[in-house]
Design goal:
There is one protein chain. By secondary structure, the chain is mainly beta. It contains one helix and 15 strands; from the N terminus they run βββββββαββββββββ. The protein is globular, with a radius of gyration of 16 Å. The N and C termini lie far apart (about 40 Å).
């Protein structure tokens, strides 16, 4: 696995690793979004809202307000409230479920910890994947999440943090097929 190749494995120094980027129930996280899946390209506004503990809603609209998809994540359940016909394909919905579940998952049990000179990497396992949470030793911020099978990286999520607790830019890239999402922070509403 290239994610941890050559890194020093050590005993985990915490039981759970936190991803707090979408954790405040008082805020709507609003991003200008660009989504590319195979030959389809979509642009608009993506809003992520934490409704309750372990309950998030993710809505993607065009800039004119037409809904592209509306998804809910409650505990480990995934609910599609609406999806545009072009996106209403099983593999696309599976991809969106995995992408956003990985992006919003807050407290993840640490199975292994790895270190380099610049980063601490915490491995957390799901039913299908191992997720690697990469933290900068200098800032303590979460910079990247890598979702992988036993042998290959499948999804890489990178964060550019400019404000405590807010990522100004998020990029999701799939390694297996031609799919990516760029999110650029517009603002939050209180």
């Amino acid at each position: 696995m290239t994610t941890t190749k050559g890194l020093l494995e050590r005993a985990p120094n915490k039981e759970y690793v936190a991803n707090d980027y979408f954790s405040d129930m008082e805020k709507d996280y609003v991003y200008k979004a660009r989504l590319q899946i195979l030959k389809h390209h979509f642009g608009g506004i993506l809003i992520i809202k934490k409704i309750e503990n372990n309950h998030h809603r993710v809505v993607f609209t065009t800039e004119f307000g037409n809904k592209l998809f509306d998804l809910e994540f409650i505990n480990d359940d995934f609910k599609v409230n609406y999806v545009l016909d072009k996106l209403n394909k099983k593999f696309i919905l599976n991809m969106l479920e995995q992408d956003f579940q990985t992006l919003i998952s807050q407290n993840n049990k640490v199975e292994h910890q790895f270190s380099s000179e610049l980063e601490d990497i915490f491995q957390s396992n799901t039913e299908k994947y191992q997720n690697y949470y990469v933290f900068s030793k200098q800032t303590g911020e979460l910079n990247k999440i890598i979702s992988a099978s036993k042998n290959k990286e499948k999804l890489i999520i990178t964060f550019l943090v400019t404000e405590k607790g807010i990522s100004s830019s998020i990029k999701l890239i799939h390694k297996k097929f031609n799919a990516m999402m760029d999110l650029n922070y517009i603002g939050k509403t209180d």
